[in-house]
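Hypothesis: this fold can be encoded by more than one sequence.
Test: take the structure tokens below, design a sequence, compare later.
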């Protein structure tokens, strides 16, 4: 009988469970969305129990869909940088404080340009930014000391799931590399980072490899999930590195690009690599592979904002005619010239992670003249998103070598115009991968490696299907090559004013 593997992807907006056959074909899937809780400025939390129940329900639904086929392995992917504080009775003292929570911004900024901050970045691979549990714990310590004082464990959502299922606090080195506490060279908890936050190794989960297996699931959970004792649970990894694996981007010269709500560029390397100015991150895939990259906070959300504020009428007309409103916007953009007649846009409406690592960054139009209408402004917004990603790509190439191919996925791939502009800005071909469940597939590949069903990850990646290749237009690329240095120079000049603008906003509120 054919055996099925299930990848469980615990994301920021939803949990997915995806069943794969041995050739990587999706057999069934289930997903449950959940809200972000934003009650105060900078907060971005989620309900722990709500996500746990989403995980349980998604697994059960997929198992029922593929029965009577045997489930050989369940392997997990998780969103990076989340934090849950547990008390001595193993009860959560907090919700999940997600990567998007900026309340630790003050403490990240304090360390950013210090020798200590640079040392911790070099050891852990994560820039000084409020997204990481390292800074979130400092924020708790300073501003919610009653919670910090009761903290028995600092964990993430995947660790909570495994605690509930197996009564053990475990984390894989891939997920741990998103905390700001893992030394990416020796793959142990970093003593300097721990000392800075005054926490003990015992307050963190036990570190294991991504292929680590668990097989003693309690009877009550076997029944609840619809599984048998033969099913192996594998820890898996973090969603970013696993996305590279699921997209088949293991070869040198192949990077990945994901543009959804936010955006990210990643590149697999065979040894840890950090940036001299802390402009990129370095996370772990497994014991032999590291992922360098940069995640921007500003992707499709900025495009949505621009559509709402610049071309709302166009969207409304398209909806009345039963057409896709985004396609209608892109048709207008298609009529505009490359370079938007000298108008530049800096897409930092949500602050910025890579390449600036500045939570106080703000959005800007530069070069705005009277002849720039809403269509040209819209083009500048799209080009600005792409040029910002180009900056990240340039930094990655300096560390990992030239990029010849970019495996791309995410919502932007639905738009021919967006893909075309992206390829022209990058000057590299975009290969659109068939798997939209890249992180779940990456988790499953680790599961199969754990079971000995595949020998190495590089060979397993060869089965990833490419359904479209977008080649750059050489003429357009030359225009963007001319624009890019000015984009970078102006970006640096604007960066100098973000702190003062933040202070002004605070004074005027």
């Amino acid at each position: 009988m054919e055996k099925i593997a299930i990848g469980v992807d615990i994301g920021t907006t939803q949990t997915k469970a995806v069943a794969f056959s041995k050739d990587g074909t999706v057999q069934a899937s289930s997903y449950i969305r959940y809200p972000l809780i934003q009650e105060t400025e900078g907060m971005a939390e989620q309900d722990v129990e709500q996500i746990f129940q989403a995980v349980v329900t998604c697994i059960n639904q997929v198992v029922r869909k593929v029965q009577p086929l045997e489930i050989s392995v369940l392997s997990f992917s998780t969103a990076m940088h989340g934090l849950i504080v547990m008390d001595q009775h193993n009860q959560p003292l907090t919700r999940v404080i997600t990567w998007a929570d900026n309340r630790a911004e003050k403490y990240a900024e304090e360390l950013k340009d210090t020798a200590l901050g640079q040392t911790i970045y070099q050891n852990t691979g994560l820039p000084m930014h409020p997204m990481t549990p390292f800074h979130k714990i400092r924020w708790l310590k300073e501003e919610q000391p009653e919670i910090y004082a009761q903290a028995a464990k600092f964990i993430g959502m995947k660790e909570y799931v495994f605690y509930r299922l197996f009564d053990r606090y475990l984390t894989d080195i891939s997920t741990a590399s998103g905390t700001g506490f893992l030394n990416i060279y020796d793959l142990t908890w970093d003593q300097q980072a721990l000392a800075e936050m005054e926490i003990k190794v015992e307050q963190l989960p036990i570190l294991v490899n991504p292929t680590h297996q668990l097989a003693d699931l309690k009877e009550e959970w076997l029944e609840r999930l619809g599984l048998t004792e033969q099913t192996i649970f594998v820890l898996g990894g973090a969603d970013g590195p696993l996305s590279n694996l699921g997209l088949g981007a293991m070869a040198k010269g192949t990077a990945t690009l994901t543009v959804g709500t936010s955006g990210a560029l990643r590149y697999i390397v065979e040894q840890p690599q950090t940036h001299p100015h802390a402009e990129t991150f370095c996370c772990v895939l497994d014991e032999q592979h590291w992922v360098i990259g940069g995640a921007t906070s500003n992707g499709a959300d900025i495009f949505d904002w621009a559509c709402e504020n610049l071309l709302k009428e166009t969207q409304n007309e398209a909806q009345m005619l039963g057409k896709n409103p985004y396609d209608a916007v892109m048709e207008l953009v298609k009529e505009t010239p490359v370079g938007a007649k000298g108008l530049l846009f800096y897409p930092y409406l949500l602050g910025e992670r890579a390449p600036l690592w500045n939570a106080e960054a703000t959005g800007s139009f530069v070069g705005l003249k009277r002849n720039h209408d809403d269509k040209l402004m819209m083009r500048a917004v799209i080009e600005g998103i792409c040029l910002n990603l180009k900056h990240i790509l340039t930094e990655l190439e300096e560390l990992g070598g030239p990029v010849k191919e970019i495996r791309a996925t995410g919502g932007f791939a639905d738009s021919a115009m967006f893909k075309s502009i992206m390829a022209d800005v990058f000057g590299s071909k975009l290969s659109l991968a068939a798997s939209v469940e890249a992180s779940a597939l990456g988790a499953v590949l680790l599961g199969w490696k754990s079971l000995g069903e595949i020998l190495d990850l590089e060979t397993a990646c060869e089965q990833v299907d490419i359904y479209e290749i977008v080649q750059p237009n050489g003429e357009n690329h030359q225009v963007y090559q001319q624009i890019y240095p000015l984009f970078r120079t102006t970006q640096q000049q604007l960066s100098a004013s973000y702190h003062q603008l933040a202070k002004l906003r605070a004074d005027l509120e």
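The chain has a mean pLDDT of 95. The chain is about 40% helix and 20% strand.
Hypothesis status: open.
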